[in-house]
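Checklist before submission:
- one chain only
- standard amino acids only
- sequence pasted in full

Submission:
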Amino acid sequence: MPLPQEDPLTYLARKPAEAVPKGEAIYSPQIPAQRLYVVVTGRVKIGISTSDGKRIVSRIVPPEGLFGEACLLGTPSRSESATALDDAALMSWTPAEIEQQIEREPRFGVALSQYVLRLGRELADRIETMAVLKTPERVVAALLQLGASLGEARPDGLLRMPGLTHHTVSEYVGTSREIVTYQMTRLRGQGLIRYSRQFIDIDVKGLETALRGARGAKSLSPGAAS
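Returned file contents:
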C-alpha cells in the first residue's frame, strides 16, 4: 500500500519572511542554492540550463510552494536559477536546520522525499511533452500545466491564474515569444482562453479536448506507428 502523501510545510518551523523584489535573482548557477525556500507571497520562476546551453523555465512556484531543494543533496545544482516573478516574500532554512528537523520528526524526511519524487515526475512529463508535441500543442499543454499549479476555479467554469507575460510562457514552452503570442491569440480567437496583464483564464475542458484531438491526429498520421 502506498504511503499517504505528506505535506512538508506541516513540519517546517515558521521563520521571519524576507522580501524579494520582482526580477531579483534568489540564486543562480554562479551562486547555487544554499537554503530550502517556501514562497509566502508572490511567485518564483525556476530556470534550468539544457544540454545545448539554452535556458528554460522548469516551473513557477506559487505561494506555499517549496524550491531550492537541490541544496539538500550535498552537490548543489549549477544549472538551476530562481528569480522572483513578482514582488515576493520567502521563508528559508539551511540544510543543517532541515537535518535537525528530520531528526526530531522523521516523517518530515518522508514528506520531503515524496515532494522531490513528485517534482521529478512532473519534470519528466514536461520533457516528454516538449519532445513529442509540436509547438502549438506544447503551448496548450503548458497552459494546462500552469493553470493546474497556479490557477483557481471561477464561477463561470474557467480557471484563472495571475497574469504571465508571453516571454515567461515562451521560456516555459521552450520557444520564441512571437510564436507564443501567435498561438495565444489563436486560442483566444477560439474562445479557449482570455487574458490581460492581470490574469489568464483558461477553458480546461476545451484545451484538453483540443490537445487530445491533436494527439489523435498525430497518431493516425502516415508513419506515426513506425
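Reviewer check: Confidence is low (pLDDT under 50) at residues 219-226.
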